[in-house]
Amino acid sequence: MNPAELPATTLSRRSLLLGGAALGGSFLLSGCIGGSQTPAASSAPSDTATTLTLQSSLSDPKPKAALDSIVKGYTKYPTTLNTVAIEQFRAQLPTYLTSANPPDVLTWYAGSVARDYASKGLLLDLSDMWTGDGACAKFSAPLKALSSDESGKQIFVPTSYYWWSIFYRKSAFEEWGVQPPTSWDEFMTLLDTLKGKGIAPLTNGTGSTPWMASGWFDYLDLRINGAAFHRDLLAGKHSFDSAEVRKVMDTYATLVPYFDPKGRSYSWQEAATPLVNKKAGMYLIGAFVTQAFPASAVKDVDFFSVPAIDPAIPSAEEAPTDGYFASAKSKNVTGAKDLLSYLASPAQQQAYIEGSGSSNLPTSPDVDSSKFSPLVLKGIKLLQETKEITQFFNRDSSDALQTTADTALTKFLDKPRDVAKILKDWQTAAQQVWNS
């Protein structure tokens, strides 16, 4: 389902990531699949089993059909594709991986979730796929880091991702006589300029989609404290009630006067409307924002990365990343890696993105980009050149921790002067999640 079709009162970050959105070129947001089985033909005995099972959470019709077609085209090992709805998949994932006869390959997310399962010895070491002529050898260094466990072994194969940035309308900036900023000081000056013209400098939908408040928190933490600190913070190795986080919130507070005050009642889609109508200047959001624009206006959309605050901090970008991992208990390790190599290949990445109607970007640098829009090409360049890739608050932590962020950050947006108590309460709530 397209996220624009979901009621604002029921739209969650998860449901958004399962929807679709037009970006120009041949890309729309990736979705998820629902419960069927599709065997792929052929033979090639290896290890202790000749067959493979691919367990998928991609249950929306178009992504499901795209992966179904791709699996049917895989002929080296007979492969069964099992598809279940995403919430069922999420609930059963620990059981899949700990069972005596687990699926060989599974869809899911890079980052903290994969690392957590790897720390329990449940995921296959895929490091050989990232070296030499391996299927992932040409993937970027940030993707490799995102796909690695705590020991440095690769345990994930990323096949698509999308980017977050500050989006704006080129024609609006031209009408207002302003330029995209190249530094934090220029960004703050731009906010003042737009506010002086009677324009809401920033829009943000934190009403029925409160997770949107985490976008600015994530980026400010990345720009002030760096990606390593951010990951450790979300893993419980630092306190939300710390000097480092207080510095992030102090900077966040300087932005609050520039937000459209109606944003506290908007969903993310509703918050896009003033951007579309040139009543607001900018929006920090994922590339799926383009679905809020009329098709004729998509070419007018552009973006810039959140400017550096501390030049000594390496660049980092939020890029929620999807792909596959394999069970450490697979009875056909050779086959599992061969299937992963097939799924990660440029041809199959392109086939899935086009077949599913996905705006996600390919992770392979060898995918044919001739049909991509200039906006998509710019997004690819951004992610290929950044030093670090994180995902989003809940993907770098958990859905349970996201709930604590939603509570803390929306309280902060309403009463930024209460930041000390808010951070103390946030740490208490977060500690309960980490201890559970």
Structural class: alpha/beta
Mean pLDDT, to the nearest integer, reads 89
Task: Supply the number of helical segments.
Answer: 16
Strand order of the largest sheet: 1-3-2-4-11-5-12
Query: Strand percentage, roughly?
Result: 5-15%
CATH topology name of the largest domain: D-Maltodextrin-Binding Protein, domain 2
State the major sheet: 7 strands, mixed
Taking pLDDT < 50 over at least 5 consecutive residues as the criterion, the unreliable ranges are 1-22, 24-36, 38-46
Count the strands? 13
Compute the separation of the termini in Å.
Answer: 33 Å
CATH homologous superfamily classification of the largest domain? Periplasmic binding protein-like II
Number of domains: 2
| Helical residue percent band | 25-40%
Assigned CATH class of the largest domain: Alpha Beta
**What overall form do the CA principal axes indicate?**
globular
Order of helices and strands: HEEHEHEHHEEHHEHHHHEEEEHHEHEHH
CATH hierarchy: architecture of the largest domain: 3-Layer(aba) Sandwich
Radius of gyration: 21 Å
Question: How does this structure look, described?
Answer:
Helix 2 links the parallel strand 2 (52-56) and strand 3 (79-83). The protein has 16 helices and 13 strands. The protein folds into two domains: 31-161 and 321-366, D-Maltodextrin-Binding Protein, domain 2; 164-318 and 374-436, 3-Layer(aba) Sandwich (D-Maltodextrin-Binding Protein, domain 2). The strands form three sheets. It has a seven-stranded mixed beta sheet with strand order 1-3-2-4-11-5-12. A four-stranded mixed beta sheet has the order 7-8-6-9. With 436 residues, the chain is an alpha/beta fold. The chain is globular, with a radius of gyration of 21 Å. The protein starts with 12 loop residues before the first helix and ends with a helix. The protein has helices at 13-17, 61-72, 86-98, 112-119, 141-146, 170-176, 184-196, 213-224, 227-234, 243-255, 268-276, 333-344, 346-356, 374-385, 399-414, 419-435, and strands spanning 37-40, 52-56, 79-83, 105-109, 157-161, 164-169, 200-203, 280-286, 301-304, 316-318, 321-326, 361-362, 388-390.
